[in-house]
Input
Amino acid sequence: MQAGCCRIMLFITVGTTDFDPLVAAGDALAAQTGERVVIQIGHGEVEPQHAEWLRFALSLEPYYDQAEVVITHGGLGTLTELLHRGQRVVGVSNPDRFDRHQDQILQAFSQANHLIWCQDLKELALAVEQARSAHFTPYTPPRSHIHELIAEFLAR
Output
């Protein structure tokens, strides 16, 4: 599937691994709403029947550009990219990640009012509606001090 000229209502990305429960929930949402939904499924086994889908793309920016709401796994890189762009984001933790770190990331961004954290895929449609009407706090990345620590270390 090529990123086309038509506005995508929902774009779902699972990152570089797999997250079949999110893909299935996104496909069910596409069937329920009749909206245009595009899902990046990564290495997953579930191939959507009601949504357009792709495994990977050189860049997801064309899809982000067209999306009203982006639903994503809780990977830090994807989340910060989307928040930098000012996207409306619904974040979903992938429970298959070994230490559940995505829960901590999504909780922090949710508490800062940068996104909607969907903790139960049964509530995905509600989370999307909340994201559409939310007044999010713009994301500003924290100031990095690593260069100061390196300079201090090297000065010893």
About this structure: The first strand starts at residue 8 and ends at 13. The CA atoms of residues 32 and 50 lie 9 Å apart. The longest helix spans residues 20-33. The radius of gyration is 17 Å.
